[in-house]
Amino acid sequence: MAKDYAKQNPQQLVKVSGKDTFVEVMNDAFGIGKVVINFAKYNDKAQAGSRITDQVGIYMNIDEALVLCHDILSGKIAQLAKIEKDKGAKYPPAIFTKLGGTSAKSLASKGKSRPDGASESRQFKIQPGSRVDFMLVGEKGKGEENATGLIVPKSSETKVMVPFSADDLKKLALVLQSNIQAFTIARYVDGSAMTNPFQEAKRKAQ
Q: If we measure between CA atoms, which residue out of 69, 81, 187 comes closest to residue 127?
């Protein structure tokens, strides 16, 4: 059963932990229209500061996150999970997959090229669990950029899986949805939603 621990910083909206893994949803990229979802695997017996053994960071557009929240709260995700479980597979396939990653060119510009020179693929998945309601999965590995700029996964090198109950998933959706709505309202209240930052920078430069 997943455990929910008190958040450690104000930018952390939700954190749910398994035995040696956790996933946290952050608000620190709302300003650029993104939701950050961090997956991590850790060794709690290791020295402080060296306990994280694997990490996968996911950036999701806010509008995509809102659609996912709606699908969770409407029961669509639960229904898809039931359909897959009823097929009898020991490990049902993912019912939601978000593809992302970083191109080889972008990695090189940051001095973070992979040894093989390839792009890095990152995936966020929701799978029906065999012993729990759901598994949330963060996965990364070798990727290939296609003609539209999408990073297509070619291999899996790191996978972090966190068990979720149905209530854990609904709580994640409710908290994320309400925080996105609050952020949007605040932008209208302070006027930033009505300002074009590029035009404003151009005006100040004149």
A: 81
Joined together, the tokens standing for residue 75 give 């029961």
Q: Which of 35, 140, 69, 63 is nearest to 24 (CA)?
A: 35
- Amino acid identity of 131? R
Q: How far is CA 153 from the centre of its chain?
A: 16
The distance from CA 117 to its chain's CA centroid, rounded to whole angstroms, is 25
d(CA 132, CA 107): 37
Q: Is the dihedral of CA 112, 117, 123, 128 positive or negative?
A: negative
State whether residue 166 is helix, strand or coil.
helix
Instruction: Give the distance from CA 155 to its chain's centroid.
Output: 19
Q: Tokens for 141? A: 């590995």
137: which residues sit within 8 A by CB, 6+ positions away? 39, 94, 123, 124, 125, 126, 127, 159, 160, 161, 162
Q: What is the pLDDT of residues 23-59, one digit of tens each?
A: 999 999 999 999 999 999 998 888 877 888 999 999 9
pTM: 0.87
Q: Which helix (H) or strand (E) holds 13?
A: strand 12-17
CA distance 25 to 176: 8
Contact 133, 117 (CB under 8 A): no
Q: Between vectors from CA 78 to CA 76 and to CA 82, what angle results, nearest 5°?
A: 115
